DNA sequence: TTCCAAATTTAGAATGATTATAAAATAAGA
DNA sequence: TCTTATTTTATAATCATTCTAAATTTGGAA
């Protein structure tokens, strides 16, 4: 599991300075289990840094992604780009109705790396496993609406 | 494996007309193993339909995606959105250097559906499994360049 | 065939996320 | 403190995608 230090020390080892903005972005990514978007990060931190710029958020995210400590999830039902500080093999499961994304540990995903490397000869650098569907709550909601229509 | 009929009949069953433009887009998606982007599809078909509009390409792709017969792959190394007519469980493997995307059949991926459904209670509607790394050719290229620098 | 209404395509404008730029602010070291 | 490189900021620019209204095409009915 990623801690704040995982992200901040990645930045430092890449020779970058640990500014308050960068540290806060890293904290937010690790603390939140909501797979935030760049805009969500910006809005959340704006009260703390009155002069915060979206460019800073994007720059920091890009750096973290290229350092391999953060993953990108796009097209997860809401057409927004989400960021995930958990780079351990796992399944991201997005609800197409309420747009929440949850993480699922998976026996099979943990074995995928070896299987793919053996089959392809590629040198693997990262992964994004995204499933989408309807969460239990939204399934009920849909069933309820269908019933109401019928009556 | 998807055939042209898989896509075209999906459109028809959704009550949509089979126009020449739509048919050609479906053909291209099925025939190509290059996971084309909207822009690539537009450029390829432009000679055949002088008046083709990008809006038509986007509309058709969106429809096919929402019908579940085409998948979307974003952030596959080249920051472009690719489309994949193969919706069977498999791994998409993207090379970060040459940006080609290949499909890998996988024993583990075929079992993921059942595992995720059991673990989450979600009703699954689709999936996108994207790994990225360096293909064998690009690994050699990188090794060669490292050698040249040393000398 | 001809006509009609609905669906579709088209061209171009609008949107909106992301990127680029240049100036101001900040941090680290001498 | 002074100096210099890095970083942040504000704003402009870019570009993929979506929207809109008009023109075209389609399939069915007469």
Describe this structure in words.
The structure is a homodimer of 151-residue chains. With 151 residues, the first copy, chain A, is an alpha+beta fold. Chain A has a single domain, classed as Winged helix-like DNA-binding domain superfamily/Winged helix DNA-binding domain (Arc Repressor Mutant, subunit A, Orthogonal Bundle). Helices cover 48% and strands 18% of the residues of chain A. Chain A contains six helices and five strands. Chain A has helices at 4-13, 20-31, 38-45, 54-66, 107-120, 136-150, and strands at residues 71-73, 82-84, 91-95, 101-104, 123-134. A three-stranded mixed sheet of chain A has the order 4-3-5. In chain A, a hairpin with an 8-residue loop joins strand 1 (71-73) and strand 2. In chain A, helix 3 (38-45) packs across helix 4 (54-66). The mean pLDDT of chain A is 90. The interface between A and B is large, with 37 and 37 residues. Chain B binds a DNA duplex (30 and 30 nucleotides) through helix 4.
Low-confidence stretches of chain A: none
The name of the CATH architecture of chain A is Orthogonal Bundle
> What proportion of the residues of chain A form beta strands (DSSP E)?
15-25%
Helix-residue proportion of chain A: 40-55%
Which two chains form the greatest contact, residue counts included? A-B, 37 and 37 residues
Strand and helix map with partners:
Two copies of one chain form a homodimer.
Chain A: H1 4-13, H2 20-31, H3 38-45, H4 54-66, E1 71-73, E2 82-84, E3 91-95, E4 101-104, H5 107-120, E5 123-134, H6 136-150
Chain B binds a DNA duplex (30 and 30 nucleotides) through residues 16-17, 19, 21-22, 38-39, 49, 51-56, 58-59, 79-81.
